[in-house]
Amino acid sequence: MKSIKLAAILAIALFSFSAADAQVVKNKKDRARVKQGVKSGELTKHEVKEIRKIEKEKKEDIRAAKADGVVTAAEKKEIRKDERRSDRAIYRKKHNRRDRN
Questions:
Q1: Concatenated DSSP letters of 29-90
Q2: How far apart are CA 33 and CA 39, in angstroms?
Q3: Any residues with CB less than 8 A from the CB of 101 and at least 6 apart, and which?
Q4: What pLDDT shows up at residue 49?
Q5: With contact defined as beta carbons under 8 Å apart, do 62 and 23 qualify?
Q6: Distance CA 71, CA 77 (A)
Q7: pLDDT digits (tens, 9 = 90+) for 17-50
């Protein structure tokens, strides 16, 4: 009986860590996209500032969702919405023909 409980707890912990790891990887990829955009001149300083503001709002929503220990379906939906908004903002700002140089 103990081994079944232990296996269930381990499975839950493994699933929750992989979801958190996915979020970390996503954030790293977004930062790399912005860094590459600055390096190539695709992003202006003002555009980077706007992207960072969106990223900060996304982090605040994630922090607020995790604050009570339970992330509800509505909170997950809001986080996904923020992720899509962030992705669109980076793409649009990198492809808007404004040049940093």
A1: HHHHHHHHHHHHT-S-HHHHHHHHHHHHHHHHHHHHHHHTS---HHHHHHHHHHHHHHHHHH
A2: 10
A3: 41
A4: 92
A5: yes
A6: 10
A7: 545 556 666 788 888 999 999 898 889 899 999 9
pLDDT over 70 for what percent of the chain? 77
Nearest-CA neighbor of 91 among 43, 24, 26?
A: 43
Q: Which amino acid is at 24?
A: V
71's tokens: 């992330």
Look at residue 18 and give its three-state secondary structure.
helix
In whole angstroms, what is the distance from residue 34 CA to residue 52 CA?
9
Task: Report the C-alpha dihedral over residues 17, 20, 22, 23, rounded to 10 degrees.
Answer: -170
Structure tokens at 96: 């808007």
What CA–CA distance (Å, rounded) separates 71 from 79?
A: 10
